[in-house]
Amino acid sequence: MKSARIPGPNKPLTISESENPKPRGTQVLLKVKSEGVCHSDLHLWEGGYDLGDGQFLKVTDRGVKYPVTPGHEIVGTIEEIGESVSNVSVGDDVLVFPWMGCGECPACKVGNENLCDTPKSMGLFQNGGYADYTLIPDSKYLAKLDGVDPDAATSLACSGLTAYTAIKKANQNSPEFLVIIGAGGLGLMGVQIASEITDAKIICVDLDDKKLETAKEMGAHFTVNSKNPETVQKIMSICNDKGADSVIDFVNAPPTVKTGLDILRKRGNLVLVGLFGGSLELSLVTIPLKSIIIQGAYTGNYNDMVELLALARKGTINPVISKRYSLDEANTALEDLKARKIIGRAVINP
Ligand code: NAD
Ligand code: ZN
Fold first, then answer.
1. Superfamily (CATH H level) for 2-157+300-348
2. What is the pLDDT of residues 242-287, one digit of tens each?
3. Complete DSSP assignment for 149-188
4. Which protein residues touch ligand 1 with a CB less than 6 Å away?
């Protein structure tokens, strides 16, 4: 098998060749058809996350070991199965649930493996899908595509799933106005899902007019370019000067969170999703006085991924796939994402 691997932080990916692994027990060998390129792959490539004030959270301190094969948005065809696999068959096209857990901690026990205390996520803590073949540890993590386009399905394992979790959290106070900050891979999925499952008027914020145009096509009722110094006033006037009921920040950097807090109305709900990072000083009394909720959202669980596949099958969500690369072009794919050249998602077709 051929893999594009990150040798260490900030080093170009290298192609390595090895023997195809033989699936045993519950394991499955997948021939990768399509692999989504996510901004989180860039954080893994850069070696970690910005904590602000010159501090950096290294992925190696979270348990990542280089060299690692990135890729957690994996769609493939089953090539071979272990002797105990019965829920899928050779030849099936499947989407992988990559947020694997230990199976024993309190989160795993209620089906939220994505929130496991000792996560084993693919493309992070174990090798992922930037490869022509990949070994899946257990067939229970697979969901059949049954007609969903393979390239489009990739993004349902991460960007779609994360957006779905975040929209559900943001919808808890039945928002009249929902602000979505960041119209990238996650944000554009968020706009589509919010149009489908909420009654909110959606306001989308980004720095890039082209991405905002796409957001409008996907169902955003209003768009605001945050390069505009009057961003806060513009959003406030759209929200009848009361502010937004819910804000989802798919960037989550100091300027966007500051905007989010400034536009949040009393009893508002701020959901932080992006991993751009940094730090911010908070005005503490406004939190109780406005009785706001600030919460995080991290990926989603297997059942939500299956629900999303059903929405994609019905055609109610259509992930935007704007660029395709070969495995040998993995470095270019990541560079293009970093340079903000990708609308929606790019995929690697090994
Ligand atoms: P992306 O690169 O496709 O999109 C980011 C978007 O944010 C772009 O449209 C960009 O123009 C916009 N942006 C950047 N800075 C901005 C600013 N200051 N103001 C307004 N807009 C700004 O990235 P993505 O794949 O959508 O991922 C977004 C973030 O979410 C990344 O940090 C990624 O690692 C993270 N992520 C989090 C989870 C989770 O579970 N919490 C899951 C997947 C990805
Ligand atoms: Zn991702």
1. Medium-chain alcohol dehydrogenases, catalytic domain (3.90.180.10)
2. 999 999 999 999 999 999 999 999 999 999 999 999 999 999 999 9
3. -HHHHHTTTTHHHHHHHHHHHHGGG--SEEEEE--SHHHH
4. 38-40, 43, 158-159, 162, 181-187, 205-208, 211, 226, 250-251, 253, 255-256, 273-276, 297-299, 337, 340
